[in-house]
Amino acid sequence: MLEDVRVNDRLIIPAAELSWRFSRASGPGGQGVNTTDSRVELSWDLLGSDLLPTMLKERATERLGTRLVQGVVTITAAEHRSQLRNREAAAGRLAALVASAIAPPPRARRATRPSRGSVERRIADKKRRGQIKRNRRGDMD
Fold this sequence. Notes:
This protein has 141 residues and is an alpha+beta fold. The protein has helices at 54-64, 83-102, 116-136, and strands spanning 5-6, 12-13, 18-23, 39-45, 68-69, 72-77.
């Protein structure tokens, strides 16, 4: 019934490590909103899992910061009326969150200087704009 969550090509969180909780959601749903447990909470113990190497665990812990409560990341989904769609939404959000948390840092920007032509064009545009504004002023006699 509950399936593994695919984070990327190399990482799949097994269903055995996931913890699901269901409760009644607020919002649309008509008469069924009071009887159906459509709200979903999906939890995964990031620090307790042996799935990630130590380096990736440290990176994810640093990036997730306040999202982690005692090493557990929790995702809530209640935007859909059906429990199944909320489960799919929570699983997708968990996968995206973990993928962004373990992604390698972006390459450092290499500082470059603007070309001479681009500097000249910028200054010429500034002078042209200033001339337009000076032409708007009437002669003060």
